[in-house]
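new request in #modeling-help
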Amino acid sequence: MKRKTINILPVLLSLCFMFMSCFSAYARLERMVDGAGLLTEYERDELSDMLDTLSEDDNIDYVILTADDIANEGYADINEYADYYYENNGFMPDGVMLAINMAGSDYCLLTKGECNVKMNEDNLDILESVVVPYLSSGDYYSAFVAFAENSSQLITNTGDDVFLTDSGVADTSNFIEPEYASEPKTLLDKLVSINWPVRIIVCLGIGLLIGFIVTGSMKSKHKSVASLHGAADYEVSDSLNVLRHNDVFLYKSVNTAPKAKASDSSVISSSDTFRSSVNIPSSGSSHGGRSGKF
Amino acid sequence: MSEIHEYKCPSCGGAIEFNADIQKMKCPYCETEFDMDALKAYDEALDSNSENMEWEKPLSQWTEEETDGLLTYVCNSCGGSIIGDENMAASACPYCGNPVIVMGNFKGDLKPEYIIPFKVNKESAKNALMKHYNGKRLLPKSFRDQNHIDKISGVYVPFWLFDATVDTDFNYKATKEKKWEDSKNSYTETSYYSVTRGGTLDFKDVPVDGSSKFDDTLMESIEPFDFSDAVEFQTAYLAGYLADRYDVDSEETFQRANERIKNTAQEAFMNTVQGYESVTQEGGRIDLAESKAKYTLLPVWLLNTSWNGKNYTFAMNGQTGKFVGDLPVDKSLARKWMLGIAAASGAGALLLSLIISLL
């Protein structure tokens, strides 16, 4: 009687394709990089989609970058860190970035390419006045939504003074106030918001690992024959006699390791916000913007 | 012309020179400084590495009265020979499981000095085999169902037992560490020491299998034997059992006994070096004093079986009842278990992660 065999090759290939497609879906440009963990998974996904849409529509990269402490990356200045990150992660020549360093309460509004001109000093004033108060109050999601929407408005409305009053002061009446996106309330909303492909792959991996460990343990019970390393069972008890001992100091060495330095920003401020306009020429393309404390 | 003695640096191995400025020995390569006395002591310890492990051999011979009534059985299948008394109906070769046929009068060479009589009977051996199968979920059903239990044979296996007093000196490199920090740096100071320990350690009745027919690893697996039950050999103890003849000379088994004794001696003396962060053995000397080898028969229950073209041997210590023997694994059954556990664990992990997310 012919034995039935299961061809597992199609199953393995299907698993490989599923794995690769999940990865390709997530190999897109990341415009919302929350290194400091300020947002929930839902807020991060919402902002990511918003930044992707605005970037594609305006043909400009809008990027948000947060970090716990840029000193861990070897940087002391938020402007240098933001510029380095933008230059080395595949973004378009034209862009606007909001970078946050939580350790020093620093923010940086970085502009690149044509945005150096489009996001002029007046527009930077307006953007700062909308974003920084949310940062100071700890409402990071609102700050990031305000940055994304108002940056796009300011960039695409260049040349129109719709945001200034007659006396030249920023007119806040047209600001786009962010609607606070709360966590999904219903069970269905929660289920829909879950990242299913990655979750299934991770759980499958955990299952396979547990399977290997358990069957490995079952197989090891089948082995009981092993040679012995020594003859400890045949050592006569209390027969060990240490008759000669000598401990001689030879030399010593000292190893010195420097401690990690804290951020040595020369800007000192208390709870007041501090603003400075900076136009720093970099080794790559030029960038503009401004930075400060929140 | 007198010989020039060159000292090697304990840190990097380079040739050390005397530095007149500091009046100490200094390595020109790593610039470590050493006291002359410390360096000399370290060098002498390294030079003392040696081994002298030789054994006194047994001399006892069989008498004619003792060999009367003993027969040699030879297996046509594997060529193994085994001794039994004239009333022993040898049914199966303990080496390969095939029937033994040819018999002849036994004419031995060395007579065993001691024997540990069987303490565990055949019924216990059979029960131990069934117990050995329990809990082995990956054991092929056809293997479990094969009924070879009655082919279990009680065999006296020849062993060489080694007694010795070991005289050793070992030298080590050991380190101590001190750590501290200030506002700018973390500091680790490592002090290096040359440590020597020497003394004696006694071993009694270290067994090494004297038959090439029995796998040495299998015989070591059923240890230890308790030699307080050993008695002077008499032929009468062989009644009802088989006995193997030694065909591995005591000289050939010296190596294995030396290796085991050396390993245990090294561990015992290493454990006496206390108070250091790390200890590394660099060399040593081992000499055997009062060493002798005894030829002894030890009781073993043996079963040979074959499955899927492969031989499986089970052995039980005839004195303590310790049972060993590798069992085959049903690969398709193992695969099913693996996939089943993976599916269940994966589903459980997914469910748990969903519950956590939805809370």
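bot summary: Chain A has eight helices and seven strands.
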